[in-house]
Amino acid sequence: MLAILGLSTVVLGGCASQAEPGHRPDGTRVTIRVPADAPTISAAVSLAQPGDLVLVAPGEYHETVKITTAQVTLRGEVREKVVIDGQLRQDNGVVVAASGVAVENLTVRNNTQNGVLVTGSAKAATGLPGRGGGYDTGDEPIRFLGSFLVSHVTATRNGLYGIYAFSAQHGAIEHSYASGGADSGIYVGQCKPCGIVVRDNVAELNAVGYEGTNAGGDLYVVGNRFSGNRVGLTTNSDHQEKLIPQEGAVIAGNLVAANQQPATPEQADGGWGIGIGIDGGSGNEVLRNRITGNVHAGLVLTATQDVPARGNRIVDGLFAANGADLGWTFPGVAKGSGNCVRGATARTVPDGLAAGAPCPADAAAVSPSGTLPRPAPPRGIPFTEVAVPPAQPQFPDARTAGPTTVPPVPVFPDVAAIGVPPVSLLADRAVVAVS
């Protein structure tokens, strides 16, 4: 049994004391330090009780950390120096399988699947990959993880997703950086209603910067930099996951630029060069984004083979230097209806979308369709070879702040107050320059 007599403790509403787990006064929270109190992060997490802080000193840790105790905070002392490295042997860096957990101020890299996985699915938590890289949990009943926070995390060079929230609700992914995701940098899937906020993140040098599959309902993707990927952002319906179709996401105030980078993992080539793709999604609000320099198209709206795209609103975006600013294309059986555009766009396929599909739209109005030429994607690189992340902001007072209390529901943004971002949005955190 690990000696923990040196644990730092804070007693809520009382004076400080020291106590072993299982023999604590009510209301006690402790800080478990790695490696001072436990030799590995996993060992420290196994000692933690609700309300505890696991504080990790600089070092490289070769383990998968699975958190199954609610309301635990896992935090690194120095973001770029606390590194959970899977050495291409571990499936996941951190697996969050309990509600109210915060993961903060550390780096996860070189995992064959995910950097950070947050999930209520027992099958997903075991590291079982599904077809095509996602998670097909078969006949497992849907179980949502109740609340979570991923903040100030760097996830790089992971074989599926950098930060992955699957079958999870009421959480936030914020102030984080994701690169080298062989599927996507940040992913939110199988949650309706989601109650999730994705904000103030940089996702670059991934196959896809952000992906939301069968996800919507109080889902806000706001104020992020999705630039320098093969594809910037997608929101889509997919039968591989439950809760199809995707519907009801708000995508606002993001910079989505230059998403045709060759030095990225070789996936998503069917959509190479697209800024935002909506595939079989409905009821999405795409508001005041800056979408520029995407060689294929700024925004593509389409339908999956059997899931139409309905009632999407594309409002007041700033489009520039894209192959086409907007492309609406419905080549299969499923079509689009009730979709609309407001705000000036220079080039659309078919021509005149802004005039031909104005907001508000009649829900039954059939959406016009055209054909987009597809540029040939360049060769990519292995996810293990993407550029090293630049310096990223630290979690404030990481060494001295107490544990983080994760709210049962995150604070949702005031969407009306979100404007079109500048081209310099979060540029100091990025490798890929945007002009």
Q: Can you name the CATH architecture?
A: 3 Solenoid
Shape: globular
Report the total helices.
3
What is the rounded distance between the termini?
Answer: 57 Å
Whole-number average pLDDT?
Answer: 92
Largest sheet: 21 strands, mixed
Organism: Amycolatopsis samaneae
InterPro entries: NosD_dom (IPR007742), PbH1 (IPR006626), Pectin_lyas_fold (IPR012334), Pectin_lyase_fold/virulence (IPR011050)
Pfam families: NosD
Protein name: Right-handed parallel beta-helix repeat-containing protein
What is the structure about, briefly put?
With about 425 residues, the chain is mostly beta strands.
Please supply descriptive tags for the structure shown above:
34% strand, 435 residues, eleven-stranded parallel sheet, disordered N terminus, 34 strands, 3% helix, Pectate Lyase C-like, 21-stranded mixed sheet, mainly beta, 3 helices
Give an overview of the whole structure:
The chain is mainly beta and 435 residues long. The chain has one domain (8-429): Pectate Lyase C-like (3 Solenoid). Helices cover 3% and strands 34% of the residues. It is built from 3 helices and 34 strands. It has helices spanning 41-47, 122-125, 353-356, and strands at residues 8-11, 28-34, 53-56, 59-61, 65-67, 73-76, 82-85, 92-96, 101-109, 114-119, 148-156, 161-166, 171-174, 177-179, 184-191, 196-199, 202-203, 208-215, 219-222, 225-227, 231-236, 249-252, 255-257, 274-279, 285-287, 290-292, 297-302, 309-310, 313-315, 318-320, 326-328, 336-337, 340-342, 348-349. The strands form 3 sheets. The protein has a 21-stranded mixed sheet that branches. It has an 11-stranded parallel sheet with strand order 5-8-10-12-15-18-21-24-27-31-34. The protein has a two-stranded parallel sheet with strand order 28-32. The model is unreliable at 1-19 (pLDDT under 50).
